[in-house]
Amino acid sequence: MTPAVQKAIDAIRRQFGDENVLVAADRDGGAYVIVEGVPVGTPFSQEESFVGFHIPSTCPYADVYPHFVNGGLSRIDGAALGEGFSTGQSFPDQAALKVPGSMPARPAVQISRRSNRKDAAGLETPLHKLLKVIQWLKSR
Length: 140
Known about the structure:
- By secondary structure, the protein is of the alpha+beta class.
- The protein has one domain.
- It has helices spanning 3-16, 94-98, 126-138; strands spanning 21-25, 31-39, 48-55, 67-70, 85-92, 105-111.
């Protein structure tokens, strides 16, 4: 992993606890990350979900996009998830993140929240983007 990717992962681990953050390096200097046990808020039937994403080797210059959550995510009121959600997706499974070269996937819902005005100077780090996505998720 590049030093910038490692720095981003260290910040995520400080925020969510080392035991809740799974990481697997990709072949290009980036990393796949899963944060387990993230509260998703009252609009959803589930109390918490994983949030998975890929930090590219071009960090901090690239947007961390998209993010993925539990494939079974559903709303308490039975309504569709709505804009910004894409069901029927997958993300590398936590077991894969522990076994180099293995990439089985877990069912996921993709969350599309692109940062069109990404600040490469570092004001929107991968942690900041993750926190924004979680806040957006809770506001649905």
